[in-house]
Design brief:
Blueprint (H helix, E strand, L loop, with lengths): L1 H18 L12 H14 L5 H9 L13 H14 L23 E2 L6 E2 L1 H17 L7 E6 L5 H9 L3 E7 L1 H14 L5 E3 L3 H5 L8 E5 L10 E2 L1 E5 L7 H14 L1 E2 L2 E6 L26 E8 L16 E8 L6 H16 L2 H6 L26 H12 L2 H13 L8 H12 L2
Parallel strand pairs: 3-4, 3-8, 4-6, 5-6, 7-9, 8-10
Antiparallel strand pairs: 1-2, 10-12, 11-12
């Protein structure tokens, strides 16, 4: 094992040195938050430790893991085990090979009686992503297929996905500092996998990617994938940590430059703008609101059940899960407009709407609002989705004004939601 660790440490170190030229802390695509993160990751990367010790360092850091507090491990793990039972997926129902990696810190692991699987809260969450959502809502091919993940962290999702779907090519695009960890983690966990570390256009163009199990590509070389087809695109959290011009660039990439068949996207939504420290969020608020009209939404939920763990309320932002299938031959503009109008009309007859039907988003109207007495439905049956979907299919001043009103209605006393200002801008632009 020591020899293997030395090999991986050297391989990913050489890869990292080659790809740092593509992006730096001064690159416009790097947000202030990630500039600060890179200051820490680079110290860890450049330390003399072997890769497994460096991996342990980032696992103690909340930005790469939910399991950063050993003292709450027992209770947090029990919450996830009960959650899986409640959705009829108890951990005991999975094969014993469905378990946490041996390279994740033992201090964060619990062994399950019987099968003896090592588990962590992080692993159980990723197990939920793959088994309870992707497998339940998508029929992925039985033949070899392509997956693309943007921003893969240390590779935990990619590893878990492979435990369920071994016959695929998994592409990861990320900044060099994070690719260092995901590439090393994957190489340690799958020593027999064929791994392609792309540090130049030639590294990719002279190879057949279908022959590789994992392909790691630094931001700055993503154009080599133009025209490629991916059966699944994954992004969890990182789009919500980017600036709007970068978010727009990546949405153009996944909607126009490559061919994406399905998405699994979990990103921040309806977080309150904390001024003045959070003022920068006005320039980072589009990741969950700019899906174009050529998607069929399979599953959509604000704060899905797995986001409700009471041990992660502080470090995690509120998010919306969007699972969608691409349909380049989607219905024509008139059909989409009619669907949009129907959704808006549905909302316009709801009780809350009677309080805000004269709402003008440019003026204070707090006297028009009554605090909602019921828990709101944030699934695809609820008001929030109806308005989100109506705007996605055919934005106009009516449905945008209704969304602004609803945001006020469910957030009467607090600071405005970050996306409120995006919709306010769209409302004004349509004037």
């Amino acid at each position: 094992m020591e020899k293997r660790l030395e090999e991986v440490t050297r391989e990913v170190g050489d890869f990292y040195q080659k790809i740092t030229k593509y992006i730096s802390m001064n690159t416009p695509d790097i947000s202030p938050m990630w500039r600060n993160i890179m200051l820490t990751t680079q110290k860890i990367i450049n330390s003399p430790n072997l890769f497994d010790k460096k991996l342990q360092e980032i696992h103690r850091w909340v930005l790469y893991s939910l399991q950063h507090k050993p003292e709450v491990l027992r209770y947090q793990t029990d919450w996830w085990l009960n959650f899986l039972k409640n959705i009829e997926m108890p951990i005991e129902s999975f094969p014993t090979m469905i378990a946490e990696s041996e390279f994740v810190n033992s201090e964060f692991c619990t062994a399950i009686a019987g099968g003896g699987q090592r588990i962590t809260p992080d692993f159980l969450r990723r197990l939920t992503h793959v088994a309870a959502y992707i497998r339940r809502h998508y029929n992925l091919p039985h033949y070899r297929f392509n997956v693309l993940e943007l921003g893969a962290g240390y590779g935990g999702f990619a590893r878990t996905f492979r435990l369920f779907y071994p016959n695929h090519s998994y592409f990861i695009i990320d900044i060099p500092d994070t690719l260092y960890f995901s590439a090393g983690f994957i190489k340690l966990n799958f020593p027999d996998a064929k791994v392609l570390l792309v540090s130049s256009e030639e590294d990719y163009l002279n190879k057949n990617p279908k022959e590789y199990d994992f392909i790691f590509i630094p931001i700055g070389l993503e154009h080599i994938l133009h025209g490629e087809t991916f059966d699944l695109f994954v992004n969890t959290h990182s789009l919500g940590e980017m600036q709007n011009h970068t978010i727009i660039k990546w949405f153009d990439f996944i909607q126009n430059k490559v061919k994406i068949k399905r998405t699994y996207m979990l990103n921040r939504f309806l977080n309150r703008l904390n001024v003045p420290n959070g003022q920068h969020r006005l320039n980072e608020n589009r990741c969950s609101v700019i899906f174009d009209a050529l998607w069929n939404i399979k599953y959509w939920e604000f704060e899905p059940p797995f986001m409700r763990c009471p041990f992660t309320e502080t470090p995690e932002n509120q998010c919306v899960l969007v699972m969608a299938e691409r349909n380049e031959n989607a219905a024509d503009d008139m059909i989409r407009k009619n669907r949009s109008d129907y959704l808006f009309e549905n909302v316009s007859y709801q009780d809350w709407f009677q309080f805000v039907k004269s709402y003008n988003p440019f003026y204070s109207t707090s006297s028009l609002f009554t605090k909602p007495e019921r828990v709101q439905d944030f699934t695809m049956n609820g008001t929030l989705f109806n308005l989100w979907e109506s705007i996605r299919l055919n934005e106009n001043r009516n449905n945008i004004a209704a969304m602004l009103s609803y945001m006020k209605y469910i957030n009467l006393m607090g600071p405005e939601f970050e996306e409120y200002y995006y919709y306010l801008e769209r409302y004004s632009s349509l004037g």
